Amino acid sequence: ANDRKAAALYAEIDRTGFYRGTAAADSRSRMNITFRLPSEELEGKFVKESTAAGLDGLKGHRSVGGMRASIYNAMPESGVAALAEFMTGFARRHG
């Protein structure tokens, strides 16, 4: 299940180039998915809009920036699907 969840988010990150993964493909975590957007302004909008959509805790570490989706065992696949769907819509609206 964790492999499926991580694969779904990495597929969205890699799909268009709007999102940029911060880890090399061979070093990607299955539990903490980190990525950047084209600008810090868009990252701020992403955090604000995702929180309003009920997706919380996506802001990355304060010294690194970007986004971080923690998808540990307790995160259901439906939650990951909701995030991937949000990411698709956000990229469409802002890309």
Summarize, please.
The chain has 95 residues and is mainly alpha-helical. The protein contains three helices and three strands, in the order αββαβα.
Features:
95 residues, mainly alpha, 3-stranded antiparallel sheet, 3 helices, globular
Structure explained in plain terms:
The protein has 95 residues and is mainly α. It is built from 3 helices and 3 strands; from the N terminus they run αββαβα. Helix 1 packs parallel to helix 3. The model has no long low-confidence stretch (mean pLDDT 94).
Largest sheet: 3 strands, antiparallel
Strand order of the largest sheet: 1-2-3
Q: Number of helical runs?
A: 3
Principal-axis shape equals globular
Mean pLDDT: 94
